[in-house]
Design a protein that fits this description.
mainly alpha, 62% helix, single chain, 4 helices
Length: 91
C-alpha cells in the first residue's frame, strides 16, 4: 500500500497506536466486515489525515468518523457528511 509523502505532525508510533485502536473499535461496530478490510479503511483514512492534523486526540476523532462513514457506505448505509451547524438546525 502506498504512503502519504507528506510528513506527519504526530509521531509515527502514536499514529500506529491510533490506527490499531480505531480499527479494533470499528471491527466490533461492523462485525459483517472482515477485520482486514476494516484495518485497511482505517489505515487509508490515517494516511489522508496525518499530514493535516497535529493533535492526536483530533486525529483519533477524525479518523474514527471518516473510517466509520466509509465502512457504513461499504455495507450499504451511507452517512451524509454534515457540519455541526446543520445538525443543530442552523444553516
Amino acid at each position: 500500500m502506498g504512503h502519504n509523502s507528506a510528513r506527519s505532525a504526530v509521531p509515527g508510533s502514536m499514529v500506529a497506536q491510533l490506527v490499531a485502536a480505531v480499527a479494533a473499535r470499528l471491527a466490533n461496530r461492523h462485525p459483517s466486515v472482515d477485520d482486514t478490510v476494516v484495518y485497511e479503511v482505517v489505515y487509508q483514512a490515517a494516511v489522508e489525515l496525518i499530514s493535516t492534523v497535529a493533535d492526536p486526540e483530533q486525529l483519533k476523532r477524525l479518523l474514527g468518523r471518516r473510517a466509520d462513514a466509509r465502512l457504513m457506505a461499504l455495507i450499504g448505509t451511507p452517512v451524509p457528511i454534515t457540519s455541526a451547524r446543520s445538525v443543530l438546525g442552523r444553516p
